[in-house]
Write a structure and sequence with these properties.
There is one protein chain. By secondary structure, the protein is of the alpha/beta class. It has helices at 10-20, 44-49, 66-77, and strands spanning 2-6, 27-31, 33-34, 63-64, 85-87, 89-94, 98-104. It has one domain (2-51, 61-104). Strand 3, helix 2 (44-49) and strand 4 form a beta-alpha-beta unit.
Length: 110
Amino acid sequence: MVRLSGRGESHAKTCEDIVRNCGIDFTLIRSSWFAQSFSEGRPHGPVLQGAVTLPAGQVQEPIIVINDIAEVAIRLTSQLGRQPSHYPSGTETNAKRRPNGRRLTVSNER
């Protein structure tokens, strides 16, 4: 199973715990903000004005393109059977794909 999970959300942690304890091979992909959130719907206005306020304090917050998450999920489904793990969003830029994007990095944290 490959599951997209929300980083830092209590209900997401509950779901992750269920997946961890169900006895099947799994990989969790954690993300926070989607780039599409800033080009569609309500936040669009502040983006055009040049400033978006996020409840992140002084933390550098990764913003991920949904298509990149889908690509990672597809690749991971072909690799199931590995040691259970999760993939949080990283802070390094992925210049090869999108200069302003962030790439997913591997973490062995459980």
